[in-house]
User: What shape does this take?
Amino acid sequence: MPLASPDPRAAWLMRLGDASLILGHRMTQWLSRAPTLEEDIALANLGLDLIGQTRALYARACEIEGGGRDENALAYRRAEPEYRNPLLVEQPNGDFAVTMVRHLIFAAYATPLYERLSSSNDAETAGIATRSAREMAYHLRHAAEWTIRLGDGTPESHARAQTALDDLWPYVPELFEADDLDRDVAASGFGVDPSTLRGDFDAAVAGVLARATLAKPAEVRGQRGGKAGRHSEHLGHILAELQVLQRAYPDAQW
Amino acid sequence: MYAQALNAKDAAPAIAEDPVKLAVFQARIDAEEKIEPNDWMPAQYRRTLIRQISQHAHSEVIGMQPEGNWVTRAPTLARKAQLLAKIQDEAGHGLYLYSAAETLGVSREELYDQLLSGRAKYSSIFNYPTLNYADMGAIGWLVDGAAIMNQIPLCRCSYGPYARAMILVCKEESFHQRQGYAIMLAMARGTAEQRAMAQDALDRFWWPSLMMFGPHDSNSVHSELSMKWKIKRFTNDGLRQKFIDATVPQAHYLGLTIPDPDLRFDEATGHWEHGVIDWDEFNRVLAGDGPCNRQRLKHRRDAEADGQWVREAAAAYAAKQRKAAA
Ligand SMILES: [Fe+2]
Ligand SMILES: [Fe+2]
Assistant: This one.
């Protein structure tokens, strides 16, 4: 697969932006469907953070690329293979346990990622990362609190949380597998090699699972491909919905 | 308005209130003093406020659905973030208003129950579908616009907690109104297809927006007492006229046509005179027979049912924590 951008730094930022956009899309699907009104507001907040991060990451990627593309061109005018998000974020919302466990996994990966990225040699990127790290630490706390409540709640909620964890664990390895692009941007001091984040992730998740009385699933080879543009069946449907107006009315300004 | 079903009759038996307390109460109202939760108040004042505030809260919560319908399809990332933030504001208004209602001695669960069982009303406007993206503009411009007309005077409502809630809510609603108008402007200045969407949105939302103000004063049961108690400060027709006078020039600026062939400017009064409102439609929608009534309630009930096990888990976990701490 060719890179999503001729500039590896831009391609790498786009990958981060793709992950937050797709996860943000999933979050917005909860609107008016959350278990409580308070949680409706909280989930909207998480979605807003993720959309905000997407815009910042895409904008910086476009500046670095220096071409004619902007945030909306990236979000609305690329097909599935050009999207490079990990498979985890495109998995369906399922029940509330699935959404919270998915968020726990993502936030436990993204928090240390943005913390490290805040010392990027690109000041703009470092600034975006600093803000994102703060936001993702809050996401991690929110998802962890719910995972604990559900895991240590009722027998039903425990069973649902354990099933969610078992079903989503195969998407964990992809998050931490470095490819040439990861190694390239990390070596230049611009980006972060995700394989260096696994220790932080394991420590954060282990603490939560213990308090939640949930069993850590066995490590499997796992599902991968999103970072290389080979996705699950779900992304096509997400993009069909997300992009419909820009695709149907390519000349319109909104 | 957001509490338009208030114009229904109060079915509760009339209680003879202590005339002395009643006189003191009325004197405080007349002196523009705020009534606070622990103050004495007539039973009907309390009942009317609970109904009005909870209907307002229900409207905010049900109102998340028609706009939520376009968040995943918003045409730019900026519009997506804006719409998401707006809907989040509306949820916040709901929460804030339920809390205000609770100060009158009713629980949120009771009020929720009234909504889900279909006993409580919410604004009829949210029973109309959102069919194209310009509806996000029309709702902000017209629906939030109509809400502001009604709610600005409510900032001076005699009941303190409601008046204070309205001050905060109004600030956000006027922001929503301006955002909505900006969407309409972008669409009206856009391609032929976008202009058609904008006109279509106005065509569908104009009359339901006028109905938001409730029946004509001559058919409104509750106005008089609500005015005396300063729960309400302007009449339905007065507010509706204010809204029309403010909105018609805005529609003209957009280059759109108001779908009322009888609309005309009266030089003598300085007001825009509107054609006949279809009150049959209003009553139908309010009674449950609008395009989306069943869908909106089902959506709310499904969300409640789906969240049941989550709320139970949270309660069970909290109980365990309390036990461990004891
Ligand atoms: Fe509102
Ligand atoms: Fe609003």
